[in-house]
Amino acid sequence: MQELSLNILDIAENSVRAGAALVRVAVRAFPAEDRLRIAIEDDGKGMDAETAKGAADPFYTTRTTRKVGLGLPYLKMNAELTGGAMEIASSPGSGTSVEATFGLGHIDRAPLGDMGQTMSLLAGANPEMDFVYELCVCADAADSADSGGIAGHADEIGRFVFDTREVKHVLDGVPISEPEVMAYMASHIDENTKELITAYKI
Amino acid sequence: MKSLEELKALRDKLQGEVSLRGDGDDKTKVLVGMATCGIAAGARPVLAEFVEQVAARGLKNVTVSQTGCIGICQFEPVVEVFVPGKEKVTYVNMSKEKVARIVADHIVGGSIVSEYTIGSCQS
Questions:
Q1: Residue A64: what pLDDT?
Q2: Do the chains contact at A121 and B44, CB–CB below 8 Å?
Q3: A183 touches B: beta carbon within 8 Å
Q4: B22-122 CATH fold
Q5: Is residue A192 less than 8 Å (CB to CB) from chain B?
Q6: Segment A46-73, tens digit of pLDDT
Q7: How far apart are CA A178 and CA B63, in angstroms?
């Protein structure tokens, strides 16, 4: 895939199928560390330890369940190609989190790409679910972000948050799946993150 | 810069229109395959283009959404168009550039773009 936002769309589709109500996507750049972290967290049905372990293996997928497929192995490969790694944390009933780390300036790292399209599509095609997207450029070490998980971060250089719950509140009953609303969300995200993405080559 | 104020204006505009519409059965549905195979083949810009075109033309009885892997990964991106009372039409090897014609000819005009369908592809 030519953009990381396509990998993110693909992984978030797993969350859709896992019956999640809320999916959080966090993209954090750490220029000082030359790291880019992407986390996708859901509150879906989760996986047992064995399934979670096998999920990143393209040859693991059992044909009867078709739970995962090639999406996670693909993201893992892309991360490892840039000197990074991918981790999956999951347990039945408590959701799944996927975190991939990339070398921010690595020549083999695909650009983040069009997150506006990814998020507006997810939100519009799954109106009963909620999605949060956070883009953050952080000043301090990547490791210190571990404790905070996907929540707020202290030393932010720049941050943008998109939350479909806010959008739905404003929409006041107008479906989020309306094509004009989807087009709005895509350009809203694009216009508000363009500057950070260009400045830090995300 | 797009702001929430703009969303409010959009809401006010749509609130009047949405209430006038039927509730699903009389709508034309466009479904784009969005499994790993579809996404890797370029399904996302295709779906985004359908959304843009439907929004720009202000088509009120059309929904654009996604579906999973339809099982014909070699033909991705795949798009299914359901016009009420008509048989499903499956478009294959889709690109952003093909979208405008499908919207104009098929969804608005009612005539299928045969050369983009799976039928013409297999012959």
A1: 54
A2: yes
A3: yes
A4: Glutaredoxin (3.40.30)
A5: yes
A6: 999 888 888 888 776 654 555 556 889 9
A7: 7
List the strands of the sheet with A96-103, edge to edge: A85-90, A96-103, A35-42, A22-30, A130-138, A156-163
A128 near B CB under 8 A = no
Count the neighbouring beta carbons within 10 Å of the beta carbon of residue A103: 17
Q: Is A181 on the interface with B (CB under 8 A)?
A: yes
Task: Return d(Cα A123, Cα A182) in angstroms, integer.
Answer: 8
Q: Is A183 close to B59, i.e. CB distance below 8 A? A: no
What residues 17-36 of chain B have any CB closer than 8 A to a CB of chain A?
18, 34-36
- ipTM for this model: 0.86
Query: How many angstroms separate the CA atoms of B78 and B92, rounded?
Result: 5
Domain containing residue A94: CATH number: 3.30.565.10
Residue numbers of the domain that contains A158? 4-199
* Cβ B122 vs Cβ B111: under 8 Å: no
CB A79 within 8 A of CB A85: yes
Alpha-carbon span B55 to A2, nearest angstrom = 27
Structural domain boundaries of chain B? Answer: 22-122
